[in-house]
Automatic annotation (TrEMBL):
Domain GHMP kinase N-terminal stretches: 54-131
InterPro entries in the cross-refs: GHMP_kinase_C_dom, GHMP_kinase_C_sf, GHMP_kinase_N_dom, GHMP_knse_ATP-bd_CS, Homoserine_kinase, Ribosomal_Su5_D2-typ_SF, Ribsml_uS5_D2-typ_fold_subgr
EC number: 2.7.1.39
Pfam families per record: GHMP_kinases_C (PF08544), GHMP_kinases_N (PF00288)
Organism: Enterococcus diestrammenae
Keyword vocabulary terms for this entry: Amino-acid biosynthesis, ATP-binding, Cytoplasm, Kinase, Nucleotide-binding, Threonine biosynthesis, Transferase
Top-level taxon: Bacteria
UniProt-annotated binding residues for ATP: 79-89
Record-linked PROSITE patterns: GHMP_KINASES_ATP
Domain GHMP kinase C-terminal: 192-262
MF-aspect GO terms: kinase activity
This protein's name: Homoserine kinase
Intracellular or extracellular location(s): Cytoplasm
Entry function: Catalyzes the ATP-dependent phosphorylation of L-homoserine to L-homoserine phosphate.
C-alpha cells in the first residue's frame, strides 16, 4: 500500500486560516511489511525521526494506539518549513495510515476534523485531503468545508532556500483585530472566494493582495514578497501572496505570461527556487 498526499498553500492572501489549495508536490508513505517494531525509512534528514517520534507515527498511534508495527518508507518532494504544508501532509498521511491499517472507515469529513484538531487550523489539511481549492471554517470544534474547482492559471512558486518556522511567523500576528478592521478584512476575503468560484481571476488576484489579516505583520520576515509583487504587477500577473506562513510566495499568472515572469523572477537572484506548480485535483490517495 502506498499513500500519497499533496503539498498545499494556505491563506491565498486574505483567507487566513480558512482557504487553501492543493499543489502537485507530494509526500509518499509506503507500507513495506509488518515488523517487530515501527520503522520509518526516509532520506529527509537527521531532524526527521525514524521511530515513534516521527509525526506520521505519532498521528497514527494517537488515533489507534494498538496498530500493529510496520516497516514504512517515506519520500517527499515538499520542501520542509517553506509554507507548502509539509507537516500537514504528514498528519494527513498518518490519519490515512491509521484509517487503512486499523480499518476505521473514516469519511473525508471526519479526516478533516481529526487533522484540524491536530494541526490547529484547516487551511492546509483540508485541501491535502480533498484536493483542489478548499474553503474551511473551524469554529468551536465544528469544521465545515466547501471544495471547489480552482480556476485554470499558471502558478509560479518562489521558494526561498532559508526556512521560516510557522511558530515564528504566527508570533508576529496581533492577538486582536478591531471590529471595523475585521469587517474590512473579511469582506475582502469574501470577494476573493466569490471571484475564485466564478472563475474571475483578475478580481481574485486583486483581492489576494489586499489581505489585512497577516501579510503586513509578516512583511519584515519576508522582504522578498514586496519585490516579487512589484515585478508581478509590471508583468501582468493576476496577483501574488505569501504561501501559508511563508517564506514561499505564489504568483498566479495567465498562461501566456508565465514563462516571461518565471525568467524575470529567476533574474532577481533571490536565493530561491522558482518553479511552476499545478493544482492537485485529487487530494490524499491510496494505491
Ligand atoms: N494559516 C496558517 C498561517 C498557515 O498563516 O499561519 C500556516 O500554518
Amino acid at each position: 500500500m502506498k499513500i500519497r498526499v499533496p503539498a498545499t498553500s494556505a491563506n491565498l492572501g486574505p483567507g487566513f486560516d480558512s482557504c487553501g489549495v492543493a499543489l502537485d508536490r507530494y509526500l509518499f508513505v509506503e507500507v513495506i511489511e509488518e515488523s517487530y517494531e515501527w520503522l520509518v525509512e526516509h532520506e529527509l534528514g537527521p531532524e526527521v525521526p525514524n521511530d515513534q517520534e516521527n509525526l506520521l507515527l505519532k498521528t497514527a498511534l494517537e488515533l489507534v494506539p494498538e496498530l500493529p508495527p510496520h516497516h514504512l518508507k517515506m519520500t517527499s518532494d515538499i520542501p520542509i518549513t517553506r509554507g507548502l504544508g509539509s507537516s500537514s501532509s504528514v498528519i494527513v498521511a498518518g490519519i490515512e495510515l491509521a484509517n487503512r491499517l486499523g480499518n476505521l472507515g473514516l469519511t473525508q469529513e471526519s479526516k478533516v476534523t481529526l487533522a484540524t484538531k491536530l494541526e490547529g487550523h484547516p487551511d492546509n489539511v483540508a485541501p491535502a485531503i480533498f484536493g483542489d481549492l478548499v474553503i474551511a471554517s473551524a469554529v468551536d470544534g465544528q469544521v465545515d468545508v466547501v471544495r471547489h474547482y480552482f480556476p485554470d492559471c499558471k502558478i509560479i512558486a518562489v521558494i526561498p532556500r532559508q526556512p521560516l518556522s510557522t511558530e515564528k511567523a504566527r508570533h508576529v500576528l496581533p492577538s486582536e483585530v478591531p471590529f471595523k478592521e475585521a469587517v474590512a478584512a473579511s469582506s475582502i476575503a469574501n470577494v476573493m472566494v466569490a471571484a475564485l468560484m466564478t472563475g474571475n481571476l483578475p478580481v481574485a488576484g486583486q483581492m489576494m493582495e489586499k489581505d489585512r489579516f497577516h501579510e503586513k505583520y509578516r512583511s519584515q520576515l519576508v522582504p522578498h514578497l514586496a519585490v516579487i509583487r512589484e515585478l508581478a504587477h509590471e508583468e501582468g500577473a493576476y496577483g501574488c501572496f505569501l504561501s501559508g506562513a511563508g517564506p514561499t510566495v505564489l504568483v498566479l499568472t495567465p498562461e501566456n505570461r508565465c514563462q516571461k515572469i518565471q525568467q524575470l523572477l529567476n533574474a532577481l537572484e533571490l536565493d530561491a527556487a522558482v518553479e511552476v506548480l499545478a493544482v492537485d485535483r485529487e487530494g490524499v490517495q491510496v494505491f
